[in-house]
Design a protein that fits this description.
With 390 residues, the protein is mostly beta strands. The protein has a single domain, classed as Porin, CATH 2.40.160. Helix content is 11%, strand content 53%. It is built from four helices and 17 strands. It has a 16-stranded antiparallel barrel with strand order 2-3-4-5-6-7-8-9-10-11-12-13-14-15-16-17. Strand 9 and strand 10 form a beta hairpin.
Length: 390
């Protein structure tokens, strides 16, 4: 990361904080008494300062998440068996957000894990997000208009709209991971009108881990969320003009659209997501995710199921997530070619909430098949994970 950028941000934040403290002696209210409740502490500890009446700094928060998981995979590729297991520090992130000057918000969050499968190394590994936004209020008939610039997570697809802090399966589906963009630098605008929430973005496809430049391709993003069919509907669209040979590309495909519907049916929550798009070489990639879930013990024990189907009209158009099956196969000396045309997965799991999503234990089992011209994979993965955030 650019040291001068870090120093400039730090100096600005420090100076503004000192100015605010000097100008308002009421600064931070006493920390709330939680009677030793560790869960309340975990949920409240991130707010370091809050004073909505201050003209300078209204709020300072710190936040972080730590996600560890273990997998055991038993499978075969083209009749060659593999069976491996391993742990992984999946995510370790720390960050801060500052609301200031009655409208501005600065957010920075760093990735601090560098290991991967069977390697739990710590160290700076790029920015997860780094952006500055300003709330304009009501503009031209739109409400709650906000515009920002920086490095963003681009939320494309039903599972990707759910933060990793709150996802119900240990890993998102292969279809989601195929279309989920890498973090990208750009301009993002949020607004609402009537009962529809809109998001528009223009992003560079430069893969810089801090703030990308604008000398690569450009991607255009749009999303609309609204109520429909007794639930919540979200429609996403991405068009990417990057040259797959000459440009870096944080999106990895030419265009895609996704439609998600979330609803409640009796005691069940149901997520339905359909995705369709095209790679730079013209291959169509499409699929469906069906994910029902229900609480077996209210607010404590949740059962989750997921079926995913993904396909391509190119025998090598689709690739599966490398985090479990591919890594385990490679560890056992079995290579899986990065391309296929049909993938089925079935997941069943339980989530036990120690402190809502702030601390939870997850277990799951996933069966999948992946077929292509030179690929014929069948595998079962057993998952166990601990997730926490503050």
């Amino acid at each position: 990361m650019n040291k001068k950028l870090i120093q400039a941000i730090s100096a600005g934040v420090t100076a503004t904080t000192l100015s605010a403290l000097a100008g308002d002696t009421s600064v931070a209210p006493p920390a709330p008494v939680n009677n030793g409740n560790w869960c309340d502490t975990l949920q409240d500890m991130g707010t370091l300062y809050k004073d909505n009446k201050s003209p300078y700094i209204q709020e300072i928060k710190v936040f972080g998440r730590a996600h560890y998981q273990f997998s055991y995979v038993d499978g075969e590729n083209n009749n060659v068996d593999f069976s491996e297991n391993g742990g992984e520090l999946r995510r370790f992130r720390l960050g801060t957000s500052i609301k200031f000057l009655n409208g501005f918000k600065l957010v920075g969050r760093a990735n601090l894990e560098k290991g991967g499968f069977r390697s739990d190394q710590l160290g700076y590994n790029g920015m997860d997000e780094l952006y500055l936004e300003y709330g304009l209020g009501d503009v031209a008939g739109f409400e709650d208009v906000a515009i920002g610039y920086g490095r963003y997570k681009v939320a494309f697809g039903g599972e990707e709209h759910i933060s990793s802090k709150k996802i119900k399966t240990v890993e998102r589906s292969n279809l989601n991971n195929f279309y989920a963009p890498s973090r990208s630098t750009g301009v993002l605008i949020d607004a609402s009108r009537g009962d529809i929430d809109y998001t528009l973005g223009v992003f560079s496809t430069d893969a810089d881990q801090t703030l990308g430049q604008w000398d690569e391709g450009i991607a255009y993003y749009g999303s609309a969320a609204f109520g429909a069919f007794d639930g919540d509907m979200t429609i996403d669209f991405v068009y990417n003009d990057a040259d797959p040979v000459l440009d870096e590309d944080t999106f990895g495909y030419e265009w895609a659209t996704s439609v998600t519907h979330q609803s409640e049916i009796g005691n069940w929550d149901l997520l339905l997501n359909g995705t369709y798009g095209e790679t730079h070489n013209g291959a169509e990639v499409y699929g469906l995710v069906v994910m029902p879930s229900t609480f077996l013990i209210e607010d404590k024990l949740e059962a989750v199921f997921r079926y995913q189907y993904a396909a391509s009209d190119d025998p090598a158009g689709f690739s599966i997530n490398s985090r479990s099956v591919r890594n385990s196969a490679a560890s056992d000396g079995v290579g899986i070619v990065n391309g296929g045309d049909e993938n089925h997965t079935i997941y069943a799991g339980l989530n036990y909430f120690l402190c809502d999503h702030n601390a939870k234990v997850m277990v799951g089992a996933e069966y999948e098949t992946f077929e292509g011209t030179v690929t014929d994979v069948e595998a079962t993965t057993l998952w166990a994970a601990f997730r926490m955030y503050f």
